[in-house]
Amino acid sequence: MAMHPVPLDRASRLLNHGPTVLVGSRHGDRANVMAAAWAMTLDFEPPKVSVVIDKATLTRTLVEASGVLSLCVPCAAQAGLVRAVGNESGRDHPDKLDRCQVAWEPGPLTGCPLVQGAIAWMECRVLPATAHVAGPHDLILAEVVSAWADDRVFFNGRWHFETAPPDLRSLHHVAGGHFYAIGEPLPPPETR
Amino acid sequence: MAMHPVPLDRASRLLNHGPTVLVGSRHGDRANVMAAAWAMTLDFEPPKVSVVIDKATLTRTLVEASGVLSLCVPCAAQAGLVRAVGNESGRDHPDKLDRCQVAWEPGPLTGCPLVQGAIAWMECRVLPATAHVAGPHDLILAEVVSAWADDRVFFNGRWHFETAPPDLRSLHHVAGGHFYAIGEPLPPPETR
After folding, report:
1. Which of residues 120-159 of B touch A (CB under 8 A)?
2. Of the candidates A133, A139, A172, which has its C-beta nearest B182's C-beta?
3. N or C: which end of chain B has fewer CB within 10 A?
4. Which domains does chain A show, CATH number per domain?
5. Shortest CA distance to B53 belongs to which of B126, B157, B160?
């Protein structure tokens, strides 16, 4: 178990580089996980995020009912799982998480799924301004209330993929289930 | 000149993989370019985007005055330029674009800067729902009204970085001016 807490004032950095995420949701005894390429950081501290969640999804229904969600950052080793939960709807398959072989644990603050094997987890609470943008734009705004990351790839307050196995790199969706892994670091800025 | 028009029904794909962007703005004879890591696609067709633009920036003032903006996707060869326009404010330096050696042309529909050397350009019009989220969350929602990309890296309707020079890869901000380049494609999904 390599997941370690990320201080909330560093949690905004988990999405800075634009990874595809898994959105976890739960209301009562119903839980779901979907894939989303359209997610980004919204603020530093308290950390906030935004994610597009279509009205047709079970995830949207569960998030609106509960007011909470989780975001997990999957890694290259999980590309098959990301495609599976992105292609199948929890509406059509109440046993979607079993069918897609998603191993998860409930987040301590929200009960939302934290997917095993992901390299970062965040639990989030929906923000009031969501009421204005969820209708016209399917946009959910949320505050991050807890965060963890795999300390093989996130340490000293930021991602360090280059020193870890390639399977732990984040995924970046292009189109139609095609992904790039995050690549190599550019030379750092000159110190002045 | 390798920039070719991108059909609007494919423009959402320009940001799917989470690159850092340059935000261009113009009002009257004042133009500016800033860097932003927090930008994402919001919808397919018509294509829409969202980007976080702090109230303290000149960019925000110009975008609010004009109702338009541009988003450019810079490449690895431009890391120095991205850091420069990210570190310096157009408020402090009216000649920021010259100081940062930003070569640009005005977009045909908006007049906003399209930065030479970037691998994609979008011109955008601010959407009405922005009124609800710009205040509390600095979030600007916009419709993409024109788009271009460098056909060495974007063709057949999506990015193909792996067949082009590494300098043309998109940049993904981690923290403090540290960037990763986008990496290698994962094996494609199995055809069924």
Report:
1. 127, 129, 132-133, 136-139, 141, 157-159
2. A172
3. C
4. 3-181 (2.30.110.10)
5. B126
The CA R_g of chain A, rounded to the nearest whole Å, is 16
Q: What distance in Å separates residue B29's CA from the closest CA in chain A?
A: 30
State the distance between the two ends of chain A, measured CA to CA, in whole angstroms: 40
CA atoms within 13 A on the CB side of B103: 4
Q: Which residues pair with B36 in a beta bridge?
A: B21
For B53-77, letters b (16+ CB in 10 Å) and e give beeebbbbbbbbebebbbbbbbbbb
The fraction of chain A above a pLDDT of 70, given in percent, is: 98
Using 50, 70 and 90 to split pLDDT, how confident is the model at B2? Answer: confident
* Distance to chain B for A106, nearest Cα, Å: 28
Minimal Cα–Cα distance from A42 to chain B, Å? Answer: 7
Q: Which residue has the tokens 């892994």?
A: A181
ipTM greater than 0.85: yes
CB contact under 8 Å between A161 and B177, yes or no, is: no
Q: What angle do CA A75, B43, B36 make, to 5 degrees?
A: 65
Both tokens of residue A52?
């597009």
Does residue A136 have a pLDDT over 80? yes
Judged against a pLDDT cut of 60, whether residue A43 lies above it is answered with yes
The minimal CB distance from B50 to the residues A50, A83, A174 is found for: A50
- A185 to chain B: nearest residue by CA? B180
A183 within 8 A of B169, measured Cβ to Cβ: yes
3-class DSSP state of A32? strand
The whole-number pLDDT of residue A191 equals 61
Residue A101 pairs in a beta bridge with none
